[in-house]
Design brief:
Number of domains of chain A: 1
CATH class of the largest domain in chain B: Mainly Beta
Number of strands of chain A: 4
Strand order of the largest sheet of chain B: 2-3-4-8-5
Strand content of chain B: 15-25%
Strand content of chain A: 5-15%
Radius of gyration of chain A: 22 Å
Number of helices of chain B: 8
Structural class of chain A: mainly alpha
Oligomer: heterodimer
Number of helices of chain A: 15
Shape of chain B: elongated
Largest interface: A-B, 81 and 75 residues
Distance between the termini of chain B: 50 Å
Largest sheet of chain B: 5 strands, mixed, barrel
Order of helices and strands of chain B: HHHHHHEHHEEEEEEEE
Largest sheet of chain A: 2 strands, antiparallel
Number of strands of chain B: 9
């Protein structure tokens, strides 16, 4: 790398890092505190009994429980074990990294400035991109949730997880019931016996006995939350660093293939597909990927939308994380389905924008 | 790996990032990297990272508890990381430290050529034109200072976007203006060597999305002054809008060109 190339890379790299790092910090702090302070059974209470409505609602839960895609997979694993319907869990898993206030804020900030013409009116690009991103993300996640709701769980979940669920299903054995569903705050060290008590999560009465753990003092939980947050920050920061390094190389023309990428930037069919592949490889966090998409200024908004919706749902690191919960065959079909659906959504979006241009 | 050691490693990584953010903000160099509304976020982010890193470092050996149970098979671990902590540390620190060591707070001309430096002026660009106020002769006299030598002070963006607006071209053609920017050699249509290109950057959010806003400087029969490539200059002359290479160009026939100090805000910024 020549001196000039190093200078260009460094300048572009730092500018994107300065722009995105505060948003990653915000996301990981919230995620860390949710990790520690939110009881696992809490989400069940937000969902209606009708499975189609429940999937719809699950697609919006990210607005209340915002997590990025790295943090959501372990949470899902725990929630499925706690009895959350698999269709709702997967819908939440795909939608929450996009349909959440932190991602909305970062997308809004990243696209602030440019304007678009919609129905003859000047509209801020940040409004269009934020709404379109959240809308398409929600739609795709809900569609997948409805598909999953109509297929057997054994096609979706890993065999080991299914076996664990089956073992837990027939009866709630004493001591195996999660604390969160009883709503007890577990103050103090105590042991007690519930008799014919009613639990919101399983919706039937039963008796069981369980031993409550020591309730930690507030400072111990804050320490745990901060440790969880710093772990999340580093996990996300690693991929963010790699992602912006690659972006900076393309942005300044240093990377081989940068010219080719530029040459397809305005191709209606190829550009969204190319950016979706890039999103898959870069494995960026949804809290900061908009800042990278916004710098791909040669590309159409449709291609950028494809990048912003696919990335939080499917990328290289998620491929590994998903395998802790889902069957490989299902992941493959899900990947194909996501790719095609998002591509169609991005095409439609770009077609709509093209119709707004007055010749 | 020992979990306490992992906490210390992660704290050091986060504190390094905090130091970089706070240094660039405190030294004022951040103005070269980000649009104004993002700059305070760097301060808050740097302070937040410093607090997070110090907190975890100082409590690395203390007991903690999440306060909820974990079901069977669910490891009770909120700190299990994706990869080896030293690998994470290397991946997070090597690029940022490399960048800090190599940045000159600007792009080279090679990179700028990818950012429209040598492109033809845009004839229709809602993206940037939206940032400009409408212009009439009354506005010009009211809103633009006139120098003692009789040149109106224009910013480069106003001149650049005149190329896409026939009304303003009529208004400004033959007008005496003064402007500032960075001067580089003109590549095209410059066999006599008497042309240069004057540019500034326009930043929407961060330097990576910067676009060059250039016009052509023509020294006519005069020998262009000896000024270092890419130096800041103040230049005055007569603006014209000839069609060259199939596009309307903005050409300033130079009357005076002197080296100058860089302005505090070197780039044009969105909404500023």
């Amino acid at each position: 790398m020549t001196g000039e190339a190093r200078q260009d890379f460094a300048f572009a790299f730092l500018s994107i890092l300065f722009e995105g790092a505060p948003f990653i910090l915000l996301g990981t702090l919230i995620s860390g505190f949710i990790d520690i302070y939110m009881p696992p059974g809490m989400m069940d209470r937000f969902l209606p009994k009708n499975k189609f409505l429940a999937v719809l609602m699950a697609g919006l839960l990210g607005a209340v429980f915002p997590v990025c895609e790295c943090a959501v997979v372990p949470v899902i694993r725990r929630l499925v074990k706690k009895g959350l319907p698999v269709s709702c869990a997967l819908t939440y898993m795909l939608a929450a990294p996009i349909v959440n206030p932190i991602t909305a804020l970062s997308t809004w900030k990243a696209f602030t400035g440019p304007v678009m013409m919609i129905y003859g009116e000047t509209v801020q690009a940040n409004l269009v991109m934020t709404v379109s991103r959240m809308g398409l993300g929600f739609l795709v996640a809900v569609l997948l949730g409805w598909v999953v709701a109509s297929i057997p769980m054994v096609w979706v979940l890993r065999k080991r997880l299914v076996d664990e669920l089956k073992n837990d299903m027939p009866d709630h054995k004493a001591g195996e019931h999660g604390h969160a569903c009883c709503g007890d705050d577990h103050s103090g060290q105590h042991s007690h016996k519930h008799v014919e008590s009613s639990h919101a999560c399983c919706e039937h009465d039963h008796s069981h006995e369980h031993i409550h753990a020591h309730k930690p003092d507030g400072s111990q939980r804050i320490v745990a939350a901060m440790r969880s947050a710093i772990k999340d920050f580093v996990d996300v920061g690693v991929y963010f660093s790699i992602g912006i390094a690659i972006t900076a190389l393309f942005n300044t023309g240093i990377a081989p293939g940068a010219a080719w990428l530029d040459s397809i930037a305005n191709r209606q069919i190829l550009a969204p597909s190319a950016l979706m592949v890039l999103a898959f490889i870069l494995s960026l966090c949804s809290t900061s990927d908009a800042f990278i998409a916004a710098t791909l200024d040669k590309f159409t908004y449709g291609a950028k939308l494809a990048f912003l919706v696919l990335g939080p749902m499917l990328d290289l690191k998620l491929l590994f994380l998903y395998q802790t919960v889902l069957r490989k065959k299902f992941i493959l079909w899900m990947a194909v389905g996501l790719f095609i659906t998002i591509l169609l959504g991005a095409y439609y979006f770009q077609w709509f924008l093209n119709q707004q241009i007055v010749p | 790996m020992n979990v306490k050691l992992q906490r210390i490693v992660f704290s050091l990584v986060v504190l390094t990032w905090a130091a970089v953010l706070l240094y660039f903000f405190g030294s004022g160099r951040i103005v070269k990297y980000l649009a104004p509304d993002f700059r305070p976020l760097v301060l808050y982010g740097g302070l937040g990272l410093a607090v997070l890193g110090l907190f975890v470092l100082l409590t690395a050996g203390e007991k903690s508890s999440c306060g909820h149970d974990h079901s069977e098979g669910d490891p009770h671990d909120h700190e299990a990381s994706d990869m080896n902590p030293f690998t994470s540390m290397a991946l997070m620190l090597v690029p940022i430290l490399f960048a800090v060591a190599n940045t000159k707070d600007s792009f080279s001309l090679a990179a700028l050529s990818r950012k429209s430096l040598f492109d033809e002026p845009l004839s229709n660009n809602v993206f940037l034109a939206e940032n400009l106020p409408p212009l009439t002769m009354a506005d010009i006299e009211k809103t633009h200072k006139k120098s003692e030598a009789g040149f109106y002070e224009f910013n480069l963006m106003e001149l650049y976007f005149a190329a896409g607006d026939p009304e303003i071209q009529k208004l400004l053609n033959g007008f005496k203006v003064e402007t500032e920017g960075r001067l580089v050699m003109e590549k095209e249509n410059n066999e006599a060597g008497n042309r240069r290109r004057l540019y500034r950057l326009f930043i929407t959010c961060c330097a990576a999305d910067a676009r060059a806003v250039p016009i052509i400087i023509d020294f006519g029969n005069e020998t262009p002054p000896t000024i270092a490539e890419n130096a800041w200059v103040k230049i005055s002359g007569t603006v014209t809008f000839p069609v060259e290479r199939g596009a309307t160009q903005v050409i300033l026939q130079s009357a005076s060109c002197v080296e100058s100090e860089a302005p505090w805000e070197e780039s044009f910024m969105r909404n500023y």
